[in-house]
Write a structure and sequence with these properties.
Distance between the termini: 37 Å
CATH class of the largest domain: Alpha Beta
Structural class: alpha/beta
Bound molecules: pyridoxal-5'-phosphate
Pfam families: Aminotran_5
Radius of gyration: 21 Å
Subunit structure: Homodimer.
Helix content: 25-40%
Organism: Trichococcus palustris
Number of domains: 2
Catalytic activity: O-phospho-L-serine + 2-oxoglutarate = 3-phosphooxypyruvate + L-glutamate; 4-(phosphooxy)-L-threonine + 2-oxoglutarate = (R)-3-hydroxy-2-oxo-4-phosphooxybutanoate + L-glutamate
Subcellular location: Cytoplasm
Strand content: 15-25%
Number of strands: 13
Strand order of the largest sheet: 2-10-9-8-5-3-4
Order of helices and strands: EHHEHEHEEEEEEEHHHEHEEH
Length: 359
């Protein structure tokens, strides 16, 4: 069975060895006679899975005491609302506007009626082609929100800013576990699972417990306290997705953890960026000092030629290379499970296309 060279921005490819384990255990997980999909989330077998998943994630990311790990649903999009609902105290929050997802996060805070929302820096005026300079902020904010990696635009924070009087809330959906971070730099981290972690339907939240507002009355499912109190088992969790996530965490640990992953990701991204730099038809629209290693856009500057490239690439088995509709051109998403070989094949295809187009 030939696997596709799938450059999807998400859901994205999973490690083959993980899928093989899933397949092997599909009908009977550890002699239980049932799939994890069919198993009670109150069973000791499933409790072991979710506990191990949490332990592994704690180990991989170095999550300290005082931070809770939650396995939730609703995607990163629900966290755009849950973060303000649970963390706003004084009513003053800050956002760094680095792209479409950051804008959506800001928009949810507005819908909730958060009284004072400051956009402290933005690169919107430049089409989000770089991470804006982050000003020093001494004022107190309930939090300042950043998007560590901008999936659509292909930019990433190269260093995490520090704010003296504000914890950072980070949307890490597209680079959790593929960049090295110190969890202590954040008050809250959230990420949809469907890029680096596992199937869609699972959302990871890592939250510093003492930031959570205790004065609030929120619907139970939207209150972090509910999920903390119940170890993410208040209601039926996305059990199968949590099981696959656990397998992905094991795979990553065996590989050498996040440090080794970063090395591999930099190698893959380096090869693709070098090919773009050396090309006479492809260019990167992204400032060198802001480039993502997981989502890499490139353009020819000619819409028809872009479309031709995408069509021919698709026919050759390189899938989902079309850039997001808001940006155009091409985008290769090369998350953790994407193999170096696949990137190499793409760069060879790009070079052949360039030679054929005669430029
Ligand atoms: N934030 C970022 C950075 C994303 O890349 C995405 C999805 O691609 C989202 C948020 C939305 O995630 P979800 O579909 O899990 O709500």
């Amino acid at each position: 069975m030939k696997r596709a060279r799938n450059f999807s921005a998400g859901p994205a490819i999973l490690p083959e060895s993980v899928l093989e384990i899933v397949q092997k255990e599909m009908l009977s997980y550890r002699d239980s006679g049932m799939s994890v999909m069919e198993m009670s989330h109150r069973s000791s077998l499933f409790e072991n899975i979710i506990e191990e998943a949490e332990q592994l994630l704690r180990e991989l990311m170095g999550i300290p005491e005082g931070y809770k790990v939650l396995f939730l649903q609703g995607g990163a999009s629900l966290q755009f609302a849950m973060a303000p609902m649970n963390l706003v105290k004084t009513g003053k929050v800050g956002y760094i506007n680095t792209g479409s997802w950051a804008k959506k996060a800001i928009s949810e805070a507005k819908i909730l009626g958060v009284p004072h929302i400051d956009v402290l820096a933005s690169s919107e005026g430049d089409g989000f082609t770089h991470i804006p300079e982050i000003p020093a902020v001494d004022e107190a904010y309930d939090y300042i929100h950043i998007t560590t990696n901008n999936t659509i635009e292909g930019t990433a924070f190269q260093t995490i800013p520090r704010f003296v009087n504000a914890p950072i809330v980070a949307d890490m959906s597209s680079n959790i576990l593929s960049n090295l971070y110190d969890v202590n730099d954040f008050g809250l981290i959230y990420a949809g699972a469907q890029k680096n972690i596992g199937p869609a339907g699972l959302t990871i939240v890592i939250v510093k417990e003492d930031l959570i507002q205790t004065e609030k009355t929120l619907p139970s499912m939207l209150d972090y306290r509910t999920h903390i109190k119940n170890d993410s088992l208040y209601n039926t969790p996305p059990s199968f997705a949590i099981y696959v996530a656990k397998l992905v965490f094991e795979w990553l640990k065996d590989l050498g953890g996040v440090t080794e992953m970063v090395r591999q990701n930099e190698e893959k991204a380096g090869l693709l960026y070098r090919t773009i730099e050396e090309s006479s038809i492809f260019t990167s629209p992204i400032a060198v000092d802001s480039r993502s290693i997981t989502n890499i856009p490139f353009v020819t500057g000619d819409k028809d030629l872009d479309a031709k490239f995408v069509k021919e690439a698709t026919n050759a088995g390189f899938l989902n290379l079309k850039g997001h509709r808001s940006v155009g051109g091409m985008r290769a998403s090369i998350y953790n499970a994407f193999p170096y070989e696949g990137v190499k094949e793409l760069t060879e295809f790009m070079k052949a296309f360039e030679a054929k187009e005669g430029k």
